[in-house]
Amino acid sequence: MSFIKAYIEQQTISRRNLLLLSAYGLGGMATMGALRPRGARAAGSAPPIAWSYRDRTDPYWNAIVSGGEAFVQSLGLPRSALINLINEGSSEKSLADIKAVLSRYGSGVALAADTNDAPNCRPVVEAVSRAGAYVSTIWNKTDDLHPWDFGDHYVSHMTWSDVGPSEQTARLLFDAMGGKGGVVHLGGIASNNPSIERLAGLKNALKAYPNVELPGVQAADWDTQKANQVMSGFLTRYGDGIKGVHCASDTIAYGVIEALRAEGIETMPIVSYNGNPQAVDLVIKGKILATVFNNPYWGGGITAALAYYAATGVFRPSAEPKDHREFYGPTVMVTATDARDFKSKYIDGNPTYDWKDFWGLSKGQIQYKA
Predict the structure, then answer these.
(1) What number is the average pLDDT over the span 114-139?
(2) CATH code of the region 2-159+295-330
């Protein structure tokens, strides 16, 4: 498990460097050259393409941005043409960076964004709409916010239906526990839609397992180091009563595994989410029972593509049906029986995608609870 320690150390170094750069006014998008003086965009020229996301040190977000870069390259542009807006898990920074890009480039911007939490999506969309730019979002928005209420400028929103897959992994976990004992859940940021849905999936599964208890639920903010601390606290509090761990992401699972190893525990059943390369290797080795893959590479590329092709007039969002404006992305549960084949297809190399096939992998329109 040496890679987990190395992963935690690399996260620490990367974040420290980013904070140091930010302190000198060189961090975030300025680091990427987004605010360097440039001339006005000529009529008919390609619009600037930006991706606003949490942190590229996380393998999931690295895959998202890699997909965005692949799309940019499909236009004949260098990867460096993608403007990276790194919000570091801050909704305030997310909104400030997006407003700065809009101020610099105006109506031409094609923006792909995860707004960090659901409430922040509305001010982001309103700022983009006022500027006459175009935005496609993923993961986080409130249920009352819809692209079709903003004409063409709020192009689309994609999320993943996490309740069902999370319930599947929970059932697998409970079976590995012999259908009894305590399970703890480590979540992401509490206000994040995926964090909410993955906990809901766990609770759904509990209904069919009366002898499984849930003594501990705590947010780990998608962070490996915080997950390590949270799991250590759970072990102190509940001790041998913990028989399994339900993690809202792979990066959380890495911290959990390290906390368990520190106590000499090597066989605790664990499930996680995201299908990161390291997690798939751990599934192959039997250290994680299952992870759920939602194809972040495709998600990152197609979200940027939707914003770009709306900005360039290839399609008109307001003319599209609602299931093209709000839709679910694909998910695949990865277990030991199929992990090697999965790794060969999705990790050893990325499939080639048609970035104009916007809804080819869509799993239908987003459904809301009444």
Answers:
(1) 97
(2) 3.40.50.2300
Burial of 244 (0-12, 13-18, 19+ CB in 10 A): buried
* pTM for this predicted structure: 0.86
The fold for domain 163-293 equals Rossmann fold (3.40.50)
Strand partners for 181: 212
CB 177 within 8 A of CB 183: yes
168: closest CA among 295, 266, 345, 293? 293
- The full set of domain ranges for the chain reads 2-159+295-330, 163-293
Q: What is the pLDDT of residue 24?
A: 32
260's CB contacts (< 8 A; 6+ apart) are 231, 235, 245, 266, 268
Instruction: Provide the sign of the torsion angle of the four alpha carbons 94, 95, 96, 98, taken in this order.
Output: positive
**How confident is the model over 10-64, as pLDDT tens digits?**
555 455 544 443 333 333 343 333 333 333 344 456 899 999 999 998 899 999 9
